[in-house]
């Protein structure tokens, strides 16, 4: 069936079109653009929770329709400066089928992860502070925890005397994420005992750099972390290779989307 691409009216300059444009060429079943405010049936692609996407995703779930969610990647994040300087820069976008995040381990080869040139660091020994990284208010509302930050800090204080540092999602000058941060995540991870988040992708950088993670069950780091904050003093440090190889198959460059590779991976037997 034709893929419905939901877009916000007047959004042609949005970074979402780095996904939408190549998708129109690489999706083998064809695409149809749908105004963000007009509900439609059938398989659909959404970019983040802009416009009415939150309500439309909920509608698709209720009706049992196939849907794809696109947003910032797990690694190789788009940076307008890099793209302007080098049009061949391989930035990525995540595209997930029927959920917001890739939160399971699917057995995959290492090839796509190897292209990212990431070295998984040894797990660190216990550190000093706990870093709490709230997801966006919209994400926390989606997962039914609108008071997530206060609830988590209160719960942590029941189980640890370690200093608790809250790092809000960086937002500045009309943008969000690492480019908007006044203090880098790398700095906040120095001597960090563990990172706590719902679904923030800060947990991926933490885990790659050897900091244990506590997340909810929907997080991309759920397979290698814990959910029970009562165990904050005893985090787990499992193998991360299969986990990393798996999420590397859930993000794609514009060229890979246009070539049809994203279509093939998202619809192969392992992903469905």
Give a brief rundown of this model:
Helices cover 29% and strands 17% of the residues.
Please describe what this structure looks like.
The protein is globular, with a radius of gyration of 19 Å. It contains eleven helices and twelve strands. By secondary structure, the chain is an alpha/beta fold. It has helices spanning 17-26, 53-63, 80-85, 111-114, 137-142, 148-159, 185-188, 202-208, 241-247, 254-259, 261-266, and strands at residues 3-7, 31-35, 44-47, 67-71, 93-97, 129-133, 164-166, 171-172, 175-176, 192-197, 213-214, 251-252. The chain has two domains: 3-107 and 247-266, no CATH class; 129-239, Rossmann fold. Helix 1 (17-26) links the parallel strand 1 and strand 2. The two termini are 16 Å apart.
Secondary structure elements and pairings:
Elements: E1 3-7, H1 17-26, E2 31-35, E3 44-47, H2 53-63, E4 67-71, H3 80-85, E5 93-97, H4 111-114, E6 129-133, H5 137-142, H6 148-159, E7 164-166, E8 171-172, E9 175-176, H7 185-188, E10 192-197, H8 202-208, E11 213-214, H9 241-247, E12 251-252, H10 254-259, H11 261-266
Parallel strand pairs: 1-2, 1-3, 3-4, 6-7, 6-10, 10-11
Antiparallel strand pairs: 4-5, 5-12, 8-9
Brief descriptors of the model:
Rossmann fold, 4-stranded parallel β-sheet, 11 helices, 12 strands
How many DSSP H or I helices? 11
* Average predicted local confidence, pLDDT: 89
As for the number of domains, it is: 2
What's the total number of strands?
12
Low-confidence runs: none
Helix content: 25-40%
Strand content: 15-25%
Structural class: alpha/beta
């Amino acid at each position: 069936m034709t893929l419905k691409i939901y877009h916000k009216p007047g959004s042609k300059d949005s970074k979402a079109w780095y996904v939408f444009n190549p998708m129109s060429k690489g999706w083998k079943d064809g695409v149809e653009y749908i105004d963000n405010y007009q509900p439609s049936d059938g398989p659909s692609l959404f970019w983040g929770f802009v416009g009415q996407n939150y309500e439309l995703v909920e509608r698709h779930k209720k009706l049992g329709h196939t849907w794809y969610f696109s947003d910032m990647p797990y690694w190789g994040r788009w940076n307008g400066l890099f793209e302007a300087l080098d049009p061949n820069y391989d930035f990525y976008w995540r595209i997930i089928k029927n959920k917001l995040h890739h939160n399971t381990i699917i057995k995959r080869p290492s090839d796509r992860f190897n292209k990212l040139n990431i070295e998984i660091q040894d797990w660190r020994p216990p550190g000093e502070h706990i870093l709490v990284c709230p997801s966006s208010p919209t994400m926390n509302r989606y997962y039914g925890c609108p008071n997530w930050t206060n609830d988590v800090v209160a719960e942590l204080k029941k189980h640890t005397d370690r200093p608790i540092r809250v790092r809000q999602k960086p937002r500045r000058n009309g943008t969000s994420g690492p480019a908007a941060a006044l203090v880098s995540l790398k700095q906040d991870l120095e001597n960090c005992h563990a990172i706590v988040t719902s679904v923030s992708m800060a947990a991926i950088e933490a885990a790659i750099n050897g900091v244990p993670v506590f997340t909810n069950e929907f997080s991309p780091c759920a397979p290698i972390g814990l959910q029970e904050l009562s165990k904050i003093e005893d985090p787990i440090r499992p193998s991360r290779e299969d986990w990393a190889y798996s999420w590397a198959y859930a993000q794609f460059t514009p060229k890979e989307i246009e070539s049809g590779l994203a279509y093939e991976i998202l619809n192969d037997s392992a992903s469905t």
